[in-house]
Design goal:
This protein has 305 residues and is an alpha+beta fold. It has 10 helices and 15 strands. The longest helix is centred in the N-terminal third of the chain and has 22 residues. Keywords: DNA-binding, Transcription, Transcription regulation.
Length: 305
């Protein structure tokens, strides 16, 4: 038994939930995939997969083994791509986690250009604003907005996101247009709370010509996802702080109104963070450099046009 190919086949079955799909992605027969997994189970003397007529799922032992296997496969891939002749053409699996609005509106629409340059990199993308344990979850990097709180991580600042305060016209008709940021903390006004990774609702600071005001607001809904914050603002649940790239289209359609002319929020820094003890592989370096270039370009729907 070729242990490397057996582990590769097992990992692909777990990821696709199917022996047939795993065989297709590995370009081998379904019979070969089945035999490799069976040989692996026999060697380990443990059942790794639960097989039904509809789907294949990892057992508890299989799930634990899978996490070890993908780390080993990633390390082997990094060792190969670190060679001088291989680093010119980065390849392999790259596990990332990205905030959902950034993925939907900026990153994914631009990925065809990335794959035109790096066709052999496979991106496994988690889409969330949650706190990700990069080491335990075997994630290569995360893209995050805001100042980083985990100082143990390595990070590269890749850009900034311009912010604004917005509200739906129907909401403003009900409560009136606030003339000063302080008004948001008093009835009848509400704000849409955003829960950052520390678990606390975000308080934003607006700067005027002669003063700065920190606004916590009165929240009747708090969310931990950018798309949910946008939806709450559109639904008229309160004033909401949003990156300009998320709000621009809705402002142009009259679905949101930008508040507080003459005031501005500090831009939100955007970082790519990765574990300090992880080798920066050619594929990870290629992805980071590409995101930096993406944030510098005046693409439609991004930071500048």
């Amino acid at each position: 038994m070729d242990r490397f190919h057996a582990m590769q086949a097992f990992a692909r079955v777990v990821e696709t939930g199917s022996f047939t799909k795993a065989a297709e992605t590995l370009h081998i027969s379904k019979t070969s995939v089945t035999q490799l997994v069976q040989q692996l189970e026999a060697r380990l003397r443990v059942k790794l997969l639960n097989r039904t007529t509809r789907k294949v799922n990892a057992t508890a032992d299989g799930a634990a083994y899978y996490e070890r296997v993908i780390r080993l496969l990633a390390d082997m891939d990094d060792a190969e791509t670190s060679l001088s002749h291989a680093s010119a053409t980065p390849r392999g699996r790259l596990r990332i986690d990205v905030p959902s609005p950034f993925a939907r509106m900026i990153l994914i629409p631009a990925l065809p250009a990335f794959y035109a340059q790096y066709p052999d990199i496979h991106i496994d993308m988690g889409v969330s604003d949650r706190l990700v344990d990069l080491i335990d979850e075997n994630v290569d990097c995360v893209v995050r907005g805001g100042e980083l709180t985990d100082l143990s991580l390595m990070a590269r600042r890749v850009g900034e996101l311009s912010l604004g305060i917005y509200a739906a016209p129907g909401y403003l008709q009900t409560v009136g247009v606030p003339e000063h940021p302080n008004v948001l903390s008093s009835p009848p006004h509400y704000t849409v709370g955003f829960k950052w990774r520390a678990g606390l609702a975000y308080a934003y600071t607006l700067h005027g010509e002669s003063e700065s005001v920190s606004v916590q607001g009165r929240c009747r809904i708090t969310v931990d996802d950018g798309n949910a914050a946008l939806a709450a603002g559109l639904a008229g649940l309160g004033a909401v702080s949003l990156p300009e790239y998320m709000a621009r289209e809705h402002v142009s359609r009259g679905e949101l109104v930008r508040l507080f002319d003459g005031w501005h929020l500090d831009p939100m820094p955007l970082f790519i963070a990765f574990p300090p003890n992880r080798h920066v592989s050619a594929k990870l370096r290629a992805f980071i450099d590409w995101v930096v270039m993406l944030m510098e370009e005046p693409l439609p729907g991004t930071l500048a046009e």
